[in-house]
Every structure is written in C-alpha cells, then in structure tokens.
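Example with several molecule types.
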Amino acid sequence: MSDRNTTSPQTASTAASGAQKPLLEIKDLQVGFQTTGGIVPAVRGVDLTLMPGQTLAIVGESGSGKSTTAHAIINLLPGPGRITGGSIVFDGQELSSFSEKQMEEVRGSQIGFVPQDPMSNLNPVWSIGFQVEETIRANGVATGRKEVRAHAIQVLKEAGLADADKRLKQFPHQFSGGMRQRVLIGIGLSARPKLLIADEPTSALDVTVQRRILDHLDIGTAVLFITHDLGLAAERAEQLVVMYKGKIVEAGPSKEILQNPVHPYTQRLVAAAPSLASRRIQSATLASPTHHLSDLDYAPTKVTEGLDLIAAAEERIEHQPKVKRPDAIVVKDLTKVYKIRGQGKGAAGSLTAADNVNFSVEKGTTTALVGESGSGKSTVAKMILRLEDPTSGSIMIDGQDVAPLKGKPLLDLRRRMQPVFQDPYGSLDPLRNIGNTIAEPLSTHKVGDRASRKARVLELLDQVALPQALITRYPNELSGGQRQRVAIARALALKPDIVVLDEAVSALDVLVQAQILKLLADLQAELELTYLFITHDLAVVRVIADNVCVMQNGKIVEAATTDDVFDNPQEQYTKELLNAIPGAGITLGV
Amino acid sequence: MAGYIFRRILQAVPVLLGTTFLIYFMVFAMPGDPLLALFGDKTPNPALLERLRAEYHLDQPFIVQYFLYLGGILRGDFGTSFSGEPVSAILARTFPVTIRLAIMALFIEFVGGVLIGLVSGLRKGKLFDASALVVSLIFISLPIFVIAFVGQFIFGIQLGWARTTVSSGAPIQDLILPAFVLASITFAQIVRLTRSSVIETQSLDFVRTAYGKGLTRRRIIPVHILRNSLIPVVTYAATDFGVLLVGATVTEGIFNVPGVGRTLYQAIIRGEGPTVVSFVTVMVLIYLVVNLVVDLLYGLLDPRIRYVK
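Resulting structure tokens for the full complex:
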C-alpha cells in the first residue's frame, strides 16, 4: 500500500471511470501570499483530478491549504494571494490564465461555490429573495420577474427550504444558521453548475442539521468538498485527498484511506476523529458484549501518541471510580422561563429554556449535556455557574443549596467551580498577556503573593502542556488550541473541584480537539475533577463522558450511562442524534 | 411604525421645554438692561421706558416672563423684537435662507465625500487614495474663515466666477460658493469615513461570496459594497446637519448672507430674549426632526434594526 503516496490520484480515478474526460484537473498548483517579506507559499504543488458527477474531499487542519486550493480554482483568493505556478484545467479550459472578466463567466454558472460560515456569507441588508434572484439573473438562468422568482423558489426548495415562497422577503437575520446554509447551497446550485465547491459547508452547524443539509448536496453534480472531519469526508466522498502544510500527503479512494492510512499525518487524523473513534468503540461493543477496549484490533503507534481518542477513552474507563461517590452537583426541577419582549404576557410571551431539569453528577466523573442549539443545555450550565438565576428549582453543589448565596460565600462557590467556554478567541482578553490572564483568578480571590502566583502560573502552564515561555505572550500570538489550553489553565488556577466545559472543544480542529480531550482526561485522573461537559457532538461524548443527558426543547429526554445511551438508545431523538454522527456507513478495519 | 414616530415626538417635548428654559434663563441673566442699551447714549424718557418695560413684560419676574412667552408660542405668537417687527416674521425671512444653504452644503459634502471616499477605498494605497488623504487633511486643519477668504479671493476676485457677497433674497447661484465653503468643514470627515468603511466591507465574507455567485464587479460595488458602507456615513452626515446650521454663522458673516447666523448674533448682542429663544427653539426643532428622519432612514438602509410595531 505504501506506493499510494507516489501514485497520483488521477490513475485511480481514470481507471474507475473508463475513458471519460476529467472535469477538473489540477497539476502542480502553487499559491503564495505576497507579504512585505516576500511571497509566502500556502499551496505547494497540488495535483488532483475530479471526474464528472464525482465527489472529492480535501481533508486537512486549518492552515493546511485546503481552502486556499479551492479558492484558487475560481480565483477568490484574498488580496495578496496569487497563483504562482501549475495549471487548473476545468472542462477543457485553462482557468489559471483567465482574466477577471472570463472568470466572472465561469463563476456561478459553471462552478458553484458554497462558503463556510452561514452567518457572515449573506449580505445582512438585502432580503434572501433578492440575493438568490440576483444570482439567477447574473448567470442568465432565467429572465423576467416571474420566471426568476419561480426559479428562486424552486432552488431554495431543492436545498431544503420548504416554505421558500413565504420567506423570500425575509432578511438573513430572521433565518437560523442551518436555514442560511440552505440558502447558500441553493445559491451555489441555482445555475446548475457542473462543479460545486463546498468549503466546510457545515462545520458551523449541529450534527443533525449537518446531515440533513449535506443530503441536499447529493444531486449528481461533481462536488469538491473541503472539510477537516475525516469521518464526514469519507461518508460523503468517493475520493479523498489529505493535505498537510500545502502539500498532498495522501490521496485515493476514501474507504481505502480510512481503513489503511499510510502517511503518519493521515494516521493521526484517523486516530483523532471523534466520529471514527466513537464508531470504532461502537462496533467493538456490538461484537462482544463483554468487551474491553484494548481488545480492539487497533494498535496505538508512535505517530498517534497523545492524539488517540480510543486510548484516551480507555484511560478514562480505567480511572473510573469503582465505588459510588457523593454527588458533586444535584439539579432538581430546574426551570428557566425567559420573557420575550413585545409579545404580551402569559405563555405566548415567554420561552421556557429549561423545563424541570433533573440530574446529578458524581464526584470525579464526567456528565455530558447533549443537544442541538436552542435545546437549553447552555442555559442549564449558566444557572449552575450562577450566571443566571433559575425561575424555579434548586441546584446543590456538594450538598449546599446555591440559590441563597451572596457576597463572600458566593465568591467561595465560584472558586470551587470554574467555566471554560467555546470560543478560544473571544474568551481571552487581547490586551492581557498569558501570565496575567492565568493569574487573574488568583489575584481576584487574593490567593498568595506575587511570587507564589507566578510559581502557580508556571505550574499550570506545565499541567496544560504549554511552554513556560508563553507567560509574556499575548493571545493573538497563540493558535486556537493553545488559547483553549490557556483558558483551561485559567479555570484550574484556583484548584476547583468542578469544571463546566461549555462546548469547550467544538471550535477546534480535530487534531487539536483530540489533544485537548486527552488533556482533560489526564487532568481529571490527576486532580479528581468533576466535569459538566456541554456539547452538541455525541461523538465526542462517547470518548469523554461517563454519563449522558440528552436535552431537547429544554427537557432532558434521556439520561443514562454513556454505554447505555449508545448501545441501547430509548428515545427517537437520541437515535437521530446517533445516526447523524458521520461515518455510519463505513466499515472500518476494526 | 406610527407608534414609534409618536413616541419619538413625545420624547421631543421635554427636550424642547428644557432647551427653551435654559436659553431664556441665560439671556435673562445677561448683565445690563437691554432697554437702556437700546437708547445708546441718550437719556430715555422714564414714562416711555416704563411703557416699553410693560409691553415686553420686562417688569415681571423671570418665571412669569418665561411662561408668558411659552403661552405665546402655543398661540403661534413668538413675540416682538425690539425693532417692533414680529419675531415670526424674522424667522420666516431668515430660516429659509440658512436651510437652503445648509442643504446645499450637505448635498455637496455627501455626494462629493462619498464618491471620493468610495474610489479611495477601492483603490487603497494607490495615487488617487494618497492624494485624497492629503487634500482632506488640508481641509481638516484649516479654519473655515481661511477657506472662505481664499475661496472669495480665487473664485470671486481672480476668476470672477462667483459674487463675493450674496445679494438680497439669496438666490441659489449666489449661495454656491458659500455652500462649498460650508461643506468643506465636514467634507474631509465624510471622505475618510466612507473610505475606511468601504475598505472594511470589501473584505467581508459576503462580498467574496457575491463574486463566487458569478456577479460582476460593476454590480458588486454599488449593491454589496457601497450600500453596506453607507450606514455609518449616513449617521454621521445627519448629526452633521446641526453642525452646518451653526457653522453657517461664520460663513454667513463673511459672505453677507441674510440668514439665521447674522440675525441671531445681533439679537444676542442686544439681549432680545424672545428673538434668541425663538431662533434656538426652531433650531432644536429642526435638529430633532432631522434626527428622527435619519433614524427612520437607518432602518431603510439596515433591515436588522427595523422598528417593531
């Protein structure tokens, strides 16, 4: 198999599809960014071939050059970006030599484009209908008011927006993220292009929404699919290209790559993808009910060390307490009702974000609160942290009711319970260096003197595996993964017993995500921490949590141990969530 | 929408009461007897003085004078100036001139500023952008009367394109040069604001997506870049209308425009309470109306903040 590295993907696909001519053929593509210090290469010699009607996925971490490759095809590179070499042949035309005018002809009508972030890719000041209709008109698909409108409604319906005719006049801010992504897919496909470039079209969405949306992409058009999730790529694409630092490190049929990754980087990606890890654990438990994870026919190797989710899960189970321990968090009949402005009084004017929520978390264990956005999981977390007051119900931390706490006792409670939030970019103060950021809780709670605080900061940096030299650096000089480590170090500064992790790994690339999950597992074993883990991603839950509470519309619909929830889901909703984990149809080399 | 406008008008009532009271009080507290000053060096006839005092209610305590004045306004009577002319007549004569001047200036600064700012933003770092920035810096740093005198000298005397002073009745062709001078105060700000707003909008994701959809640059610039970039500029230009009304005082003085600025200045010097307060009241009223119109316009430009019924 090791010769796959050297074989170009072209050979494989030409063999598969006979004498057909390729739709897109990229040879030795080089893309660089002009900076004051010269040209910085971002894509360094990419070759790929896509046949008509086929789907090819480019997989890699952020900064691997996968999006840059996609943007280079239709020259959407940002200002200083230039194609510095190679050729892009699309349907017999050499695109890299096209003028801006010629490129305008190709975009939209021949090559459609679906961007990454649904929140920022629609113009907020124009209605949805306007933005779809202008695309249809620009590409000459239909003329005349009525025809254009009818066509717009049709493409939106095809993209899964059932009530498109009623919603044309609405504006982007009146649409949810999933709805907006459907609009963008509708726009991308509106001129029936031969090729669709989909740049991480669902990374910002919940898994169940992701699944429904990606099903609408499956329409016979050739798709170039950019993603960081190997499981998702393998499920959606026949061909896979793995990129690392601007180069292709491995290419070939998806299943082959997944079952037998050759390049160390691909092996790391396979080991770190939560969707694949959870599938693998799943198949093993189904095969033998008295399973042990180490029975898996899967050997952790040197290259996957520190990233291996299965190893992390195994470790977690080993450290699981054998005897029942006291509950760290007990939540009873917790309810939160928000009043909606301008909607009058009573039921119509209020929103029940949390509805009679009951659960408890044993000391030293991890409970995951799972649900889609809007299910109320973050509201529950905020109430436990006392950032919101419950409408009714009680929260006990270590047997103590937290509702009446004020002043000093509340401060003491906060000291024992620390949060880590989703966005590692937004949760650190850009004007404070890392040392001060981590030391802030210590000075707020007046712990120790200057010297002892500094010593504690250095100790914490070691604990989260960051170099001590970072102490004087600023957040903008750090990567997303490093920032999240800083946020975790800050949460641990006061030696808390409980850490509330609100989507703490959702914004990270798979490799970084795996490292952070491993770190969290290690810290739990070392410091006896109790985790409340809020997430929309069940795959991650399989790896990290002991118990799961599934939330829907403010209610807990299912609560059980992780194994029970995965092996024997009771509720339809839980089954849907499980099915939405990508990679369901893939037989892995277990 | 109607409810929103009604609420805004209600909000204007305390603002108007507050401003008129403050201005009336300040004029009242000014040192010196306004009537004595009117007679200059002559010694006035005590009986005549007494009669005038009663006529202008100057013998009443301050608070009574204020309410008498307010009551008059409600009946449409703005009082009488010391020259015997009704204040409402002076208002009717001067405000149209100044408003015409301010609107012309606003039009010049907005159209010119947005156009130059747009081209600068689209050609960031090129020659046009660099020269526009230098020129706007010159306009920002020069006081308005310098610009006015230079304009009078070049266009009025050397080239003979415009009259150096405005003839009575203030016809539009006479107001063009003063309007350009008045516009120059904030013109540079509009250029810079538009430029930075265009540069920011240009790099937003939806603009890249618009290219990806197959739209041409000619369509993307007005539809997706300019409209979004105008939101902060419109807000600025609107608050600026008030600045133009005030700034008109200096410009009107230099070009001898028979507008609000000159008349108000003279009334302040003479301590004519009703005249000063009436002028300020109308100015505040115009300011409030302009602000309301802009807030409504803002909703048109940006649907995210359209007002709930």
